[in-house]
Write a structure and sequence with these properties.
By secondary structure, this protein is α/β, with parallel strands linked by helices. The protein folds into two domains: about 130 residues, abc type-2 transporter like domain (abc type-2 transporter like fold); about 210 residues, no CATH class. Helix content is about 70%, strand content about 10%. The chain has 16 helices and five strands. It has a five-stranded mixed beta sheet, with helices on both faces. β1, α3 and β2 form a beta-alpha-beta unit. The two termini are about 50 Å apart.
Length: about 400
């Protein structure tokens, strides 16, 4: 019995090592993914979080506090707001993730030796940002406030050590918008649902034409007068309608059963879903046309599907990835869907915030669908040319 098992084992090893593509998948692809994921997390921490400042105090002490945030590698102070409404608009429009509000009586209270508070506002839709802001802002404010208070107390005659022991640190209050309870369900569930349905849509559309070729049905369809446009669009539409229904059932389950809030515009959501699925199905159909069989099409579909969630920026922000990882992220349709779905649900953003993602997906679809038709036409012409050649021989 052992001898027969070893014979089959040896036979299978021969098959594996004769098939270069299979060797690449078994060994090369895992190495590729661990390398890509290592590159993506290379920074190890979230850095240069886009930040805006609203300084009501406008004194040397308040500017010192702001400068401490500018000097930190964790924050990137990119804008100055002149009112709370303007600051909110910056956060809502996703120009910044964090707002620092310095109160009007900031320096006055410090000079009196009283406690004062700076307000830190963070967009809580991505919890990596809010957690990072919470820990890093605490370190910065504690450090700068002890230094400020020590100087003030030394000016009043305290010895340096006495001043350090007596110093009353500046406090800070944090306000987390859109996910104030740090709810992981709100943070992850919609993105995981989108990832799952993307994988299903991509896998089944990627075998749409390879299945017809392997079953011998494609030639029959061509003989019955169907052209490339009919076939491509006819393959896309059923999966599009089914996936549109499925994703909205998932959204309803998330809202009604798992209590994920939905504050956005239904039309925004449906427009984004439509653009996303058309793009994904266009990729799947193109793979199905250019690949030789179902196995090959499935393998290439997996290459797209597996890294999508991690590289989408849904959990680890794209801004904190190195350039190579950002390039991969920008090439994946899920990048333009996941984050916008969560924003629509939790933030209720304006149309101009969502439209760029819809536009990218729409443009990709307008390129990929005609490309699929051209690729199929080329195959059809090659098929008829081969048929005519065999008839003349």
């Amino acid at each position: 019995m052992l001898k027969k098992i070893l014979q089959i084992t040896g036979r299978e090893f021969k098959y594996i090592f004769k098939n270069r593509r299979l060797v690449l998948i078994l060994i090369g692809i895992p190495l590729l993914y661990i390398s890509l994921f290592g590159i993506m997390y290379n920074e190890r921490v979230v850095k240069e979080i886009p930040t805006a400042v609203l300084d009501y105090n406008q004194t040397s002490l308040s500017r010192t506090l702001v400068q401490s945030f500018k000097d930190s590698e964790k924050f990137s102070v990119e804008a100055t707001a002149h009112s709370e409404a303007e600051l909110r608009q910056m956060i809502d429009n996703k120009k910044v993730k964090v707002g620092i509000v310095v109160p009007q009586d900031f320096s006055k209270k410090i000079k009196k030796g009283e406690s004062t508070k700076a307000m830190i506002i963070v967009n809580g839709t991505n919890m990596l940002y809010s957690n990072s802001v919470l820990s890093n802002a605490n370190q910065i404010i504690q450090t700068i406030s002890v230094g400020m208070s020590s100087k003030m107390l030394q000016g009043k005659g305290y010895l340096p050590q006495e001043a350090a022991d007596t110093a009353m640190p500046v406090q800070f209050a944090i306000r987390v918008w859109y996910n104030p309870t740090f709810n992981y369900m709100n943070f992850l569930l919609l993105g995981l649902a989108a990832t799952a349905i993307q994988q299903v849509a991509l896998m089944y559309s990627a075998i749409a034409f390879t299945r017809e070729r392997e079953n011998g049905n494609l030639q029959e369809l061509l003989q019955n007068g169907f052209n490339a446009v009919h076939l491509v669009m006819g393959k896309v539409l059923p999966y599009f309608l089914i996936n549109m229904i499925t994703i909205n059932v998932l959204m309803a389950v998330a809202y009604w059963i798992f209590k994920v809030p939905f504050r956005g515009d239904i039309l925004q959501l449906v427009s984004l879903e439509a653009a996303f699925f058309l793009c994904i199905l266009a990729i799947g159909v193109l793979l199905s046309i250019v690949c030789r069989n179902e196995l090959e099409a499935t393998q290439y579909a997996m290459l797209v599907a597996i890294p999508s969630f991690l590289f989408s920026g849904f959990t680890w922000p794209a801004e904190s990835m190195p350039p190579l990882a950002q390039g991969i992220s920008a090439a994946l349709p899920l990048t333009y869907f996941c984050n916008s779905v969560r924003d629509i649900a939790l933030m209720a953003p304006d149309w101009h915030v969502v439209l760029p993602d819809i536009a990218v997906l729409g443009i990709a679809t307008l390129v990929l669908l005609p490309l699929s038709v051209l690729a199929l036409n080329k195959q059809i012409k090659k098929h008829y040319a081969a048929t005519d050649e065999s008839l003349t021989m």
